[in-house]
Predict the structure.
Amino acid sequence: MKYVTRTISKIAVMTIVILSQIISCTTRPTSPMTNIYEEVVNPDYKDIFMSIKQKIISDVENGTIPSVSISVAKDGKVIWQEAFGWADKTEKRAATPATIYSLASLSKPLTATGIMVLAEKGKIDLNESVEKYISPLTLKSYIYDSKKVTVKHLLNHTSGLPTHFNYFYADEEASPPSFKETLDRYGFIINEPGTSFRYSNLGYGILGFIISKISQMPFSSFMEKEVFIPLGMKRTTFNIESYNGKDIATKYDSKGNALDLQCDTPAAGSAYSTSADLMRFAFHVLGNRIEGSKSVLSENSIKRMISEHSESSKYPYSKNTYYCLGFFFRQHKGFREIWHEGGWDGASTLLKIIPEENIAVVTLINTFNSQYVTQITDKIIAAMIGSNKFEEQASGAVSKPSEKTIPDELLGTWKGEIKTHEGSIPILMNFAPDGKISVATGDQIESAKTNWSQLYLIESTASSIFGAFDGKIPTTDTKRYPHSVLL
């Protein structure tokens, strides 16, 4: 199969600092299932899902999505499980509930489960310094004490590590570096550990390394032995390269071209699974006992994963939303929503759980369209419990920040540098009284007239700013594709 690379890719994110300034998990009765990958349409729910099904069929036919696989459960029973469209358009291979999809960041709750398994066995302490478990490797910082970063900080994205994307496509010569190389290049703490949320793929990459080092097993093998096999997730893996099955959904870009890619933080986004397998994982979270599934965690550990949060783990881009120990958490209109989504080139995924209603929904597609999977998932939930009770919303959607006044002490032009593993790059930042922030780096500064780029402000605090601008970071990693810069 010929793979086509997207022209614009999310590449190694460089983040710098230049200005210092409950749910009860009651175990429920066992639900018998025969073939967990079979299609299911409960007649009691057929009519309420009909309009959603018709929309999906229409979207597949008009090319909005190549395929979608859905699994819906209520009170420990699957009530709708069906797939639509093509797992592979060229081969005319239809998607089924057994089709395996790339999960992208929906991998994170699985990795978090692996960490909690080790914690229950006394192999790791969530409150212990990460450096105890990755030694002789270390984290680094120009400002903060990296030894303060704990395992729990990695789980809830409060470690102070940057976001980090580094994708490698099948049609290019470059391949993912070793974990040691990735950590050496990008393992810098840029916020005070434990004080604020910063979603970090690198943090979950470190968790995967810890699992492998402590268990003395390859990460994918540990996850298979300790999580997937006990839960009966027979078609779930972190090692798709060695998977012998043929029923894997081909990834497609926005133009319908087939593609394939890897990242250098496998534990953060390299899992593959089916909607049916992920429903078994959801049953485990809800405390629903399923035939052929053995719980891998205590009720207390599961409770911590889906409810333990603090102000420091508050998600800044969605109201009343926090990140727990592997899941997003939101209290809204009397409901607790527990979820995680995933998205990268060729995949968008979402698992959402409503504990009070004992509802779980899985939606997987083989192209990037996070808005679509959120829309379908929330329409399903609203159809089950009433749109007047459940408000459809974009899970974790990034909203434009409110206008913020720049402190007087920041006004003017500041000079600094971006430090990379291949050297330093000069940077200028101008803070204007009207709130505009302009940035220039490298060649933009060296030209006769500074060529400024506008910074899109995503978040600001008393001591830091976070935003994106059009610029170039001329390192080996970033020169591979056109890119923007997160600062």
In short: The two ends are 37 Å apart (CA to CA). Confidence is low (pLDDT under 50) at residues 1-33, 394-402. The domain at 22-398 is CATH 3.40.710.10 (Beta-lactamase). Residues 27 and 314 are 29 Å apart (CA to CA).
